[in-house]
Every structure is written in C-alpha cells, then in structure tokens.
Design goal:
Blueprint: E1 5-6, E2 30-31, E3 36-38, E4 52-53, E5 92-99, E6 120-124, E7 149-154, H1 158-161, E8 166-173, E9 176-180, E10 186-192, E11 195-200, E12 207-214, E13 221-227, H2 238-244, E14 249-251, E15 263-264, E16 271-273, E17 276-278, H3 286-296, E18 299-304, E19 307-308, H4 310-323, E20 330-334, H5 344-356, H6 362-384, E21 392-397, H7 404-411, E22 421-424, E23 427-431, H8 443-470, E24 473-476, E25 480-484, H9 488-496, H10 498-514, E26 516-521, H11 548-559
Parallel strand pairs: 5-14, 5-26, 14-18, 15-19, 18-20, 20-21, 21-22, 22-24, 23-25
Antiparallel strand pairs: 1-4, 2-3, 3-6, 6-7, 7-12, 8-11, 8-13, 9-12, 10-11, 16-17
C-alpha cells in the first residue's frame, strides 16, 4: 500500500484586463447585493485549495502489454504510431525548469508589463442588465447606464513590494470618463483625455480605477497601465522575463487553468485582442505563452485539456509548430495529475474508463483511460509535427510515490510508442497540521524532508527501470518543498531557515546524481500563507537570490548549463 498524502496547494486565479476582455467570456459570475456583479474573485474551489494527494494503489504486478488477452479492447480511437529513437539509460545532464503561478490583483507575482492583464474587475449594473450587453465582440466597453460603473483593481508594481512609491500611467482607446479612486494606494491622480496618471504607494490597499461613462459610438478599449517611463511595447515585465530566461523549461499548467477541467473548443479559447485579451475557457491565450517562451528562449511545457476536442488540440499544435522558435522544444502533456483522485479530471478518467469497459476496477480504469487519452492526444501532435518530431517531447505523467502506474500506462496497447518521457512530481512534504512544530524547534521538518529525498531516490530508480525497458526519458513535471498547514507563521520561518536552502541543494544534487534530466520546480513566485509556500520568491519585488530557496536554485543553475 502506498502511504496517502494530504496536501494543500493554492493556485491563484486572476481576472484578465478590461477593455479587450469580454466579461461574457471570462468566467461564471456571482450576483452580489446592490446590483453588483463580481466578474472574477480570484478564488479557485474545489480543485486546488485542498488537494488530496491520494491514489488507489495498483497491484504490483509486471505488465508488458494490455490488449485483448487481458480482457481489454485492442483498438479504441487508435490512429498513428510514431516511435523515436530509444533514450539512453545513463543519467542525463540535469536541466532546471519552473512552473508558473497565475497572477491576479491579489497575487504577488508580476508576469505582465501591463498591470491590466492581472487586474480584478467589478461591474455594478444599476438595472441588473446582463453583462454581455456591455461589451462588443472584441471585448470593448460599449455602454454604461445611469448609475452603472466599473471598478478596476490594479496589482502592486514591483517597487511597491520594496516599500517604494511609483508613478503609473494608464492609456486607452475610445471615449470614456475615468476616475482614480483616492483610497490611499493611488494618490495624486490626474485624468486627461485617454490618459490617467497617479502614484502607487505602499499601503494595505489596492489602487482602483472607476469607469463612469462611455461613448457607445467610440467604445472604450486597450486599457494599459504601467510604470511611467517604461517601454510601452513590452508585453512581459522585464524582471520576470529575465528570471525565467535562466531556466530550461517553463510549464504553463496553472496559466492554462488545467485543474478546472473545462470543456474547451477553438471557438471558446482565450484570444488576444489589441493590448488585452478576451478570456475564454483555457486560461491565458496560447499566443501569449508562445511569446513568453520565444522572448525568454525557454522551452515551453503545455498541458492539453482533457475535455478539449480534436480540433482544439490540432490547432493548438499547429500554432506551436508555426510560431514557436524552431530552436525550442515543446513538451506536451495530457491534462494535469490524472492520478489525483481529488481533481475532477482524475474522477472523470476513472468514470470514462469504467464506461468503456477498460476495467471493472475504478483504479485500473483510471490509469488505462489516462493511457488511452494520452495516446489520442499524442497521435494528433505527432501528425502535426510529422518530420519535425525533434521539436516536441510527448510526456506521460503519474504519481511519484506510485511508480507502478507507469507500468500500466506504458503497457497499455501502443501507448509506449507515442510517449518520449515519463514524468512525476518528487515533493518533500511536511504537514504542520498533523505534525505540529514550534518556532523554537523546526528540526523535525528538515529531518523528514531529508528522508523524502532518500525515498525519492528509490522511487525514481523504479521509474528509471520502467523507462529503460521502453527506452524513455525520466523527468519531473513538478518538485520541491511541500510544507503545508494552517500555521503560516511557522511555515514562513521554515521557508526562511537556512536549512531550507541546504535541503534544496541536497534535493537538486540528489536528482542530478541519481536521475538527471529535466526537473521542473514548483513554482516561481507566491506569497507564504495557509495554502503553502510554493514560490522560490514571495513577491515581484524580491531578487531571485534574496530568498534561501531562490539562492540555492540560482547557485545550482550556475553549476549546470541552461
């Protein structure tokens, strides 16, 4: 039996910017008192606020190929088979990647130069009109009735996190009346035609803009707010892009909002419009992710939504093929953590596997359906990249603590011929709720984390044995510390203890010596709170080497090539 782990991971959600983001395409809305509509509250439930890392243990039997002799159908949606040259079984040079947290006005990261792309927006409709009636097909604001207004909360710029004040300039197209709310965070506001200026100061409040009127014949759009004197052509915050450029790979799972497990088509995807984007069913626009990869010259890792149709997957792959820097390699994965029974996709995979008759046991049905769906997704990507297969890495992922799952995935029909790498998430976990510690003695945390490093050496060895059998690489889709619990003050002390830096150094060296290849850490920047401490840095104002985790990672990066 595998030991069940209970974890809590926060995946911060954001609203996109107004003016180019149609509220009808953002998210489900919640009606509030007084005729106010909350367009997006930045709260994700239930998929990742309380993530139970539980998997039904699969029987530890050796599986070569699951076909009709094993009681399973041999062909369900089978198409192409593309096999690459077998991977070597020796330890490969280590490369580091990073998972990207999402951004909203309350998050502490700063992906975009335009603060509007991480904003938080309220529409107050006095008459309760449907929000779709306020926007045109390009997300431009076309009406505000008497008594209506829109409030826009802007996230903190980098300098504010450092205790400084910074001048902000907002510009837009169209004709509208704007007001800078004097709530303490935004001071010295001045509004002219198509421009507003104010000083963002370091307070507990968030800077707010109000849109009071709009000319229907000259719709309001392309709202852009950034530091005065900064380059108006930049899409990404320069400090953010510089930080990411040090990594080999960036994984976009949270940017794609994979854990929401939505149904998505090409027509309902997020898309760029002017300086902003219309929010669809798949998180940030694909074009933005590709652009970030190109500008940082970093290999992208994309997750394909479980409930995307073939047309979406094909056009996604074609867009990557046609616009990603050809010197970069795209990793592609089906959904995220389909092994995880708490996630909706894990439950769906099991239900579908049972319905298809892949097994009468819900655990086997889950893993077989994942193998089947992975094969279907990789068939499409392989056909799109025919003759250019060196530009993609097709990933099959499963739980690090349950290596046997990879046997079932690789033994299912022809899945092994459609996959290039096996990925897991070796975390160093500690639960402060079930194993409390005091500020006076944090040593039990680091003792357990050290034991987890040793445990992962064993489990990764098992995965490597399976991978060698099929000639596949072994990589990590996530990894790092995994300290959770309500005692955020204690967790903060743990994260800032120099022993955490030592643990990261040991963890990365152990991976380098025993596994090698790509390790994608989780994650870039996030505040420390009761949901965890997932970031290498805590906020956009911190230099990467100013935290113990960030410094350890940076020193390790200096010893390896990108």
């Amino acid at each position: 039996m595998k030991k069940n782990r209970v974890a809590v991971r926060r995946s911060v959600k954001r609203a996109g910017g107004l003016a180019g983001i149609s509220t009808t395409l953002w998210m489900s809305t919640a009606a509030l008192a007084g005729g106010t509509t909350l367009l997006y509250a930045g709260v994700q439930m239930p998929d990742s606020l309380v993530a139970k890392w539980v998997v039904r243990p699969l029987a530890t039997i050796s599986v070569a190929t699951v076909d009709s002799s094993g009681g399973l159908p041999t062909t369900v949606g089978e198409t192409t088979t593309t096999t690459k040259t077998a991977a070597p079984t020796t330890v490969k040079p280590t490369k580091l990647g990073i998972n990207l947290m999402e951004a909203d006005f309350s998050a502490s990261n700063r992906p975009f130069a335009n603060l509007m792309l991480s904003s938080y927006i309220w529409l107050k409709s006095a008459a309760g009109d449907p929000e779709a009636s306020y926007f045109d097909s390009n997300g431009n604001l076309i009406k505000l009735n008497a008594g209506d207004n829109i409030q826009v909360a802007l996230p903190r710029p980098n300098a504010v996190y450092q205790g400084k004040s910074v001048d902000i300039v907002c510009t837009w197209t169209g004709k509208a009346t704007l007001q800078v709310s004097n709530n303490g965070a935004a001071v010295n506001g001045v509004v002219r035609a198509n421009e507003a200026r104010f000083t963002y100061v370091n307070t507990a409040a968030i800077a707010l803009l109000k849109i009071l009127t709009v000319d229907p014949t000259n719709p309001f759009g392309n709202l852009d707010c950034r530091e005065a004197g900064s380059d108006p052509t930049k899409t990404f915050d320069p400090a953010y892009a510089s930080f990411l450029s040090r990594f080999n790979t960036i994984r976009f799972m949270d940017w794609q909002e994979m854990n929401k497990n939505r149904t998505v088509t090409w027509a309902t995807r997020s898309r760029l419009v002017g300086k902003n984007f219309i929010r669809g069913k798949d998180g940030y626009p694909i074009e933005l992710m590709i652009k970030l990869a190109n500008e940082t010259h970093t290999n992208p890792w994309f997750c394909m939504p479980w409930n995307a149709d073939d047309d979406y997957i094909r056009k996604f792959a074609e867009l990557v093929r046609d616009t990603l820097d050809p010197t970069l390699v795209a990793h592609v994965e089906t959904a995220n953590e389909v092994w995880n029974w708490y996630f909706l996709v894990g439950q769906q995979a099991s239900t579908e596997g049972l319905a298809e008759g892949l097994s009468t046991d819900k655990g086997y049905a889950q893993v077989y359906r994942y193998a089947e769906r992975t094969g279907q997704v990789m068939d499409i990507w392989s056909s799109v990249f025919a003759g250019k297969m060196s530009r993609i890495v097709r990933v099959a992922a499963w739980q690090a603590a349950n290596p046997d799952g990879f046997n079932y995935i690789m033994g299912f029909r022809t899945t092994a011929s459609k996959v290039d790498a096996l990925a897991s998430a070796p975390y160093l976990d500690y639960n402060l709720d079930t194993n409390p510690v005091t500020l006076a003695d944090l040593s039990p945390v680091f003792t357990q984390m050290k034991s987890r490093i040793d445990m992962h050496v064993i489990n990764q060895g098992k995965i490597r044995t399976i991978a060698a059998k099929y000639g596949k690489r072994v990589i990590a889709y996530e990894g790092g510390q995994h300290v959770t619990g309500q005692a955020s003050d204690i967790n903060s002390a743990i994260q800032k203890d120099t022993r955490m830096g030592d643990i990261y150094t040991q963890f990365l060296r152990s991976w380098q010596q025993n596994s090698g290849d790509l390790m994608v850490l989780y994650a870039d920047t996030a505040a420390i709170n009761k949901y965890g401490a997932w970031g290498l840095t805590e906020n956009a104002g911190q230099a990467p080497d100013s935290t113990v985790k960030g410094k350890s990672v940076q020193l390790f990066q200096a010893a390896i090539s990108k």
